[in-house]
Design a protein that fits this description.
This protein has 309 residues and is mainly alpha-helical. The chain has helices at 2-22, 34-38, 50-71, 75-86, 109-117, 139-150, 180-183, 204-216, 221-236, 240-255, 259-274, 278-295, and strands spanning 73-74, 90-92, 99-100, 123-128, 156-161, 166-171, 196-201. It is 53% helix and 10% strand.
Length: 309
């Protein structure tokens, strides 16, 4: 009751101060009306001719083009240019979306492709040789095959089908001779000697995230809820010391966040709180007070000391 009374007195004092500041004092003389009447009589400069307004219109157009040039070119157009320049057959991951700087100074296909993938985190490129009797599959199919083999942890294995007397073999990181490509046609089964250059996202998780982003267009509330559930499960598996460390790191990350983003998050939280029903709001307040009392061993926080004490 004491704090409510103090709050009411402060509110009335603020209102009184604002009203006194907005209105002139009784004894203060009113300003004469002559200056406002004389202001229009001053000479007014004529507007500039239309010819002088044209340069400012052209200048913003040049400023708009410059950021587009700095952002780079579409990665697919850059890879198409590399394929045409070095006479390559390039297959691009359908999920690959980025803007890169074209490697105009590259003097080889390997240097050009290296310069492109370095600008896209998580991307890579590989030379792929297909069997001689095999047609080029769809881009997504070939990329999935390459991604699976690149991330296969086995160093080598042979899978045998005894019923049909057939095997499927896989061997990782085999050293080959410089004339390896010429020997491909003599293998059994034979392989094509002209490779296909595949540019793709190397990690499956990153590819799945790109696919989900393209399918949904933007993140949904359900996606954030799933991440929060995983975070809570991970938090409960920590030791008390690691939980305290995680909380400190989270608070520090929040404080280091961009001020506009932090303010937006706080506004969204306040909007969510105000849109709750009175029952839900009361229950949330009670739970917060109970948690606060438990943290202070059952001692609720008292009012701050009065000024001067």
């Amino acid at each position: 009751m004491r704090w409510r009374t103090i709050a009411a007195i402060v509110a009335l004092s603020v209102c009184a101060v604002v009203s006194l500041w907005a209105q002139p004092e009784p004894g203060e003389p009113q300003p004469p009306p002559e200056p406002p009447v004389d202001v229009p009589s001053e000479p007014v400069m004529p507007p500039p001719p239309p010819a002088e307004l044209q340069p400012p219109v052209e200048q913003p157009r040049q400023q708009i083009r410059q950021p587009g040039q700095q952002a780079g070119s579409n990665v697919r157009q850059v890879l198409e240019s590399i394929a045409e320049r070095f006479k390559l057959q390039v297959v691009v991951d359908p999920l690959l979306q980025a803007r890169v700087t074209p490697p105009a100074q590259a003097n080889s296909a390997q240097a050009a492709l290296d310069a492109v993938v370095k600008q896209i985190p998580g991307s890579a490129w590989r030379k792929v040789y297909l069997r001689a009797d095999m047609e080029l599959p769809a881009s997504e199919t070939l990329v999935n095959w390459v991604r699976t083999l690149v991330n296969l942890e086995a160093q080598g294995l042979i899978i045998a089908d005894a019923s049909s007397n057939r095997i499927t073999s896989f061997v990782r990181n085999v050293t080959v001779s410089p004339d390896f490509e010429q020997q491909l046609g003599q293998m059994v089964p034979a392989f094509k000697t002209r490779p296909v250059y595949v540019v793709f996202y190397q990690q499956p998780m990153l590819a799945q995230q790109q696919r989900a982003g393209q399918r949904q267009g933007q993140a949904r509330a359900e996606d954030l809820l799933a991440l929060e559930q995983q975070r809570m499960q991970l938090f409960m598996q920590m030791s008390p010391e690691e939980r305290q460390r995680a909380i400190r790191m989270g608070v520090q990350m929040f404080m280091n966040m961009d001020p506009s983003v932090r303010m937006q998050m706080m506004q969204e939280g306040m909007r969510w709180f105000m849109n709750m029903s009175p029952e839900e709001r009361q229950m949330l307040i009670q739970q917060g007070m109970q948690m606060f009392q438990q943290m202070f061993q059952g001692q609720p926080p008292g009012p701050p000391p009065a000024p001067g004490r």
